[in-house]
Structure formats: C-alpha cells, structure tokens
Amino acid sequence: MSKRAILVVDLQNEYWPTGKFPLVGIDAAAANAARVIAHARAQGDLVVHIRHEMPGGPIFVPGTEGAEINAAVLPQDGEPVITKNFPNSFRDTGLDALLKQQGVTETVVIGAMSHMCVDATTRAANDLGYSTVTIHDACATRDLEFDGVTTPAAQVHAALMAALAFLYGEVISTDAFIAR
C-alpha cells in the first residue's frame, strides 16, 4: 500500500477577491480542498501546506496578509509548511526530502493556480517518481491572455487538467477521491 501526501499548493489570501490576484472559482475550490484535507487527516495521510513568497514582488510579499494561507485550509499543529519561491514546489525546497523521509509514494495535488504551480508541482512529482493524483475541482485558475486573445479560466483549467491526465497521473474529482 502506498503512503500518501496531500500537497496543498498556494491556497493563500492573495487569490481571494480581497487579494491582489483573485482567481475564478477560488471559494468552491477551497471548499473542496478543505474536504480533501479533512478526509486525508481522518485517513492519517501526510498533509503538506505550500506557500509561495515573492520577496520584492507585486504579490505574495513575505509578511503580508496576501501571503498568508487562507483560513479555509489552515494547517493544523504539526503539519509541515513549505515556503517556495518558484512555481515548482520541489525546486529549492525541502519537499522531496520530507516526502522521502516519510516514505511517501503517492502525491495528491490541490490548490492554485491550475495552470502554474499546480501544473509545475504535479509534473515535478511525477518526474521524481511519485504516483500523482490531481483533484481538479479543488484547484482554481484565472483567465489568461495571449496575443490579444483571452481564454476563460474554465477553458484554461480544462486544458491543463486534460494535459496532466494525458501523461502525468490521475485527475479526479473531490467526490471520487473521498469515495475511495
């Protein structure tokens, strides 16, 4: 049987409507993330909270309210919190060492943003040999613009989840995850 870790990626205040970089559907994604976290805690899974910081940047400035983990998914005592400075939660952090120390073989990724840090973290976990599951309705993103064309968040999210499901692991709903 695999040992599982839930990676709660960047569910920070900056992404809520009161923050500087709000995401489409963040409240619904956070509600599902909270369900995933509660289920994981009940199962004895490792829950790892990941925070993005951008020293000197326009968002996620260390020490600001926007950089704090949102109240909907706050860590409990003893749950590790990893601070990162890049989209990939493994890059220049102790995440891989922590997971290896705990004997983790499966990662479950939830959080924000689907097209950036969730994507980078899921792909990195897969590249490092972890079995990966992404819970699509416990993730959120935003509209993206390229070359004068705006792609709605729902399409950005769907395209990214389809890409992850193609080769980088399983992509399932919160309900499907909890039903296992």
Summarize the structure in words:
One of its GO terms (molecular function) is hydrolase activity. The chain has 180 residues and is of the alpha/beta class. The chain has a single domain (8-104, 122-179), classed as Rossmann fold, CATH 3.40.50. The chain has helices at residues 26-43, 95-101, 114-127, 153-167, 174-179, and strands spanning 4-9, 46-52, 81-84, 106-112, 131-140, 144-146, 149-151, 170-172. Helix 3 runs parallel beside helix 4 (153-167). The model has no long low-confidence stretch (mean pLDDT 97).
What's the SSE blueprint?
Elements (H helix, E strand, L loop, with lengths): L3 E6 L16 H18 L2 E7 L28 E4 L10 H7 L4 E7 L1 H14 L3 E10 L3 E3 L2 E3 L1 H15 L2 E3 L1 H6 L1
Parallel strand pairs: 1-2, 1-4, 2-3, 4-5, 5-8
Antiparallel strand pairs: 6-7
Helix pairs in contact: 3-4
Q: How many helices in DSSP terms?
A: 5
- What's the CATH class, please? Alpha Beta
Number of domains: 1
Identify the CATH homologous superfamily: Isochorismatase-like
* Alpha-beta content class: alpha/beta
Distance between the termini: 13 Å
Whole-number average pLDDT? 97
Fraction in helix: 25-40%
**What's the CATH topology name?**
Rossmann fold
> For the report, how would you describe the main beta sheet?
6 strands, parallel
The CATH level-2 architecture is identified as 3-Layer(aba) Sandwich
DSSP E strands, number: 8
Strand content: 15-25%
Global shape: globular
List unreliable stretches of 5+ residues: none
Pfam family, one: Isochorismatase
Organism: Hephaestia caeni
Keywords: Hydrolase
GO molecular function: hydrolase activity
